[in-house]
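Predicting holo structure, guanosine-5'-diphosphate bound.
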Amino acid sequence: MLENLTDRMSKALRNLRGIGKLTEENMAEALKEVRTALLSADVHFKVARQFVEDVKAAAMGQEVLASVTPGQQIVKIINDELVKLLGEGAGQLLDKKPLRIMLVGLHGSGKTTTSAKLAKRLAKEGYRPALVGCDIYRPAAIDQLETLCRQENFRCYTDRNSKDVPKIGRAGMEWAKEQDANLIIFDTAGRLQIDHDLIEEVKKLRDKIVPDEVLLVADAALGQEAVNVAQHFNDAVHLTGIVLTKLDGDARGGAALSMKTITGVPIKFMGTGEKMDDFEIFHADRMAQRILGMGDVVSLVEKAQENIDEKEAQRLAEKMQRAEFDFEDFLAQMRQVKKMGSIGSLMKMMPGMSGIEIGDAEENRLKQTEAIILSMTVQERRKPMILNASRRKRIADGSGTSVRDVNQLIKQFGQMRKMMKMMGGSKGRKLMKKFGG
Ligand code: GDP
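Done. Tokens:
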């Protein structure tokens, strides 16, 4: 399942821990997982293949960050590549008045609904919209357009008596001009699938009305068929943009990536519900997250990249393995983690961890631990064995805790070091393997 892409990545990249750089060989298994995940998100196989190549190129040679797992790191790279491919900020329509927009697409994709949504959005930007109904084959489509226009108070042109679509389009355009409209949206007929007659009709209409924008309205759930549909329409009438609808459903968004990559036509808007206001400019970052189906790994990795001093993290990890870790190191590590925000908020960002609550009690315990370590001298932090009773009493007083608290921390620390020593040896490595580390 897609939800587990990050987990799958983590498994596939398990062996990368402690390796310096990402290379073609050490990423091979992970990249295979990426491909499978994209295919199950309904991404066209050609697009998936090219995408894996792009990710490989972007990841190759990158240092493996010590503070996040290689799996998380690669998911971030994939996310960035996805956003780049989907095209952030491409939602601009031509800035001109009058503006003529023709909507094309398959039957049921949401053309009529989108005509009204688009008119409503652009009306807020100062346009005076008029809608022209060119879907003559379905009387219900004309009724629907008229109802929506009445509801939103838009001018609307329909002709139930003519079967000549280009002529209706032309007449609607003239009429709209008389009405002083400076935005004319043409709602066209769809079919259940692409066929010759549909394409011919759309072409003839296009030649008559010469639209500034030709937008393909496509259902996000279209899946593999999406590329075919977009290519046909693009070849016939040269699309200027795509509106992806029904993103409030559980479509995985692979269609978006496929259509954009193969046709190069930008996705400009997205429909997110049946209501008139459920319509937004297309956000590539949200779509990327939908395709990846992950938790907020991306921002976790960004935070780590911003805040963690990689060399320092590496140094501490090595000290831990050699069981030379002292209170000074412990403090340094606590600070690194704190720079990234509270432990609670960090945990929330990890996939599968969002349900686990880190309460105030744990946060307070960490604060107390820090206070105790801060009350030690540097020498004491480096050599905890010199911490005799009088030193412990002084530290407790200095940190506003009790001798019992101090004793407990020192005891736990001793145990932790013992564990690390074990882990460092060959026995430890076996133990780690048992735990899947
Ligand atoms: P057309 O045949 O292409 O004109 O499609 P319609 O505009 O008639 O839409 C078909 C159905 O999809 C209608 O029931 C719409 O309410 C619904 N629809 C359109 N856009 C969206 C959307 O973004 N989300 C959801 N949930 N439904 C939508």
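Residues 99-282 form a domain with the Rossmann fold fold (CATH 3.40.50.300).
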